[in-house]
Amino acid sequence: MTAHPLGNGGRLAAIHGWLLLLPAAVLLAAFTHYPAVATFWHSLFTTPRGNRPARFIGADHYRDLLADPIFWTALQNNLVFAAGTILPSIALAMAMALWVNARIAGRGLLRLAYFTPTVLPMIAVANIWLFFYTPDYGLFDQLRGLFGLPAVNWLGSGDTALGAVIVVTVWKEAGFFMIFYLAALQQIPPELGEAAQLEGASRWQRFWRVTFPLLMPTTLFVLINATINAFRLVDHLFVLTRGGPDNATSLLLYYIYEVGFKFWDQGYAAALTMVLLSLLATVALLKFFWLERKVHYQ
Amino acid sequence: MSESAQLTRALVRPIASPAPSGLLADGRIDRMLNTTGAWALGLLWLAPLLYAVWTAFHPGAYSTRFDLLAPLTLENFRAAWAAAPFPRYFLNTSILVATILAGQLVLGTLAAYAFARFSFPGRDIAFALVLIQLMIMPDVLVVENYRSIHALGLVDTIPAMALPYMASAFGIFLLRQTFKTIPRELEEAARIEGCGTLGILWRVYVPLAKPTYLAYALVSMSHHWNNFLWPLIVTNTVETRPLTVGLAVFAGTDQGIDWAIITAATLLASSPLLIAFLLFQRQFVQSFLRAGIR
């Protein structure tokens, strides 16, 4: 594409194009590109305080980071959180979509049920889950009580807190991802399944040989989103655990918030943000160079 | 998918009979198992909401024991409404969501038009730069964005909450895809009639992209109605605080507030979206479907 096809002249078209782009470009540059670069720059400086201006310290923050046990805990938690949320929410989303795409009793209601968590504010539903997890009289402990099991401090114990947070996240996300699978399923011509059926393929075989491969592009899309979300979703932590107990549920972004806005150490928070940015960049590169090729079958 | 799908469809058509369609429709037992499983999961998914409704409409004493004969009450809602400035929070959130949406629609339309129908040097690089935002959302850059907002003197204002989200890569991408499907002949016809660049955009492209606008608006509104972290960081007074932050502040001051009141407040904060969702369920899901496809 070179000249504008409407004969207005290439230069005029270029000027118009850039003018149309300008407002969005300015804001994108100001709140996405500039901060991404500035984060790196500021991670090399101390945090300015009162009458002490920022001072260049090179890689000191990164050295601190390597020696910071809370950082390692948060990073490890975040990887566990990613592993614990991504696959279960995708698998559940796929099952939900298959169900509400088939002729099932109460299909409309079911769609509603699965999708409801998506429209509720995370901060609001976290309040409800907080109550479920309350020791002794919360829903889970009441159920356990019926079987004579002892109370568990789900959110207060380092062994169960992260798992409890993961459950809430999966509950919140699966219904959202379901929508994308539902869209993909509705685009698959029913003849494909029928053809396989005529050839004697079982339901299971039809799913794995026909439907599942056709859903791969959607799975990739959902996988990328789920991965980004795994490093982005922290709202429920503010209500459920505040990163505790003893940082057992601290995730990277939550730790960045604490360092940056509770301890007001923005230089160190910038170094932490760089770690988060590199993780997200890795996700992006994986998408572009590896998965893209694997998924686009001919 | 297209070639193989078409090929298979062509091969199958002559013998395709009205066989049971859908992948999960084989035997009766199978169907029963699937229905049971689907509904068990559905109930599990609805449980928190059902529980919140139960607790909010009953006296505090019943929030931990289920008694079908428990008296109904609206007292919890009254108490919650009186205990925090919810009207103010609702107003703040509404202004915030409207501001962001207006900005996103205008900026997104202009940029999408440029990407879809103009060729200029640097266009592809610019587009790649826009798509970066799909990976690195403003939520991740809170530290640096707070610096900028602080430098602009905008801390604790509604523009501060809105600015980082006004240029949305997702919106630009979605509208660009839609604009690309609109036949150029329509644009040429409008140009012959004497329309300028913006006139064509307004008279031809915007009306034809209405379904995309609706879908995007629903996605954007529900996202920003629920947004929490960034508003938490840039607001610190009742005058600007949105609902989500207000709710967190409210529920965080534990002493003396019981569960029934907290669930009532939680339902209050979620109710506009929840009601909108119940009323427009079909359109809502459809719009997410449409928004997700491209």
TrEMBL record, chain A:
Leader sequence residues: none
GO CC terms, sorted: plasma membrane
Protein name: ABC transporter permease
Gene3D superfamilies, alphabetized: MetI-like (1.10.3720.10)
Biological processes, Gene Ontology terms: transmembrane transport
Regions that span the bilayer: 12-34, 79-100, 112-132, 152-171, 212-231, 268-290
Superkingdom as given in the UniProt entry: Bacteria
Organism: Thauera humireducens
Compartments (UniProt record): Cell membrane
Family: Belongs to the binding-protein-dependent transport system permease family.
Annotated ABC transmembrane type-1 domain residues: 75-285
Keywords of the record: Cell membrane, Membrane, Transmembrane, Transmembrane helix, Transport
Mode of membrane association: Multi-pass membrane protein
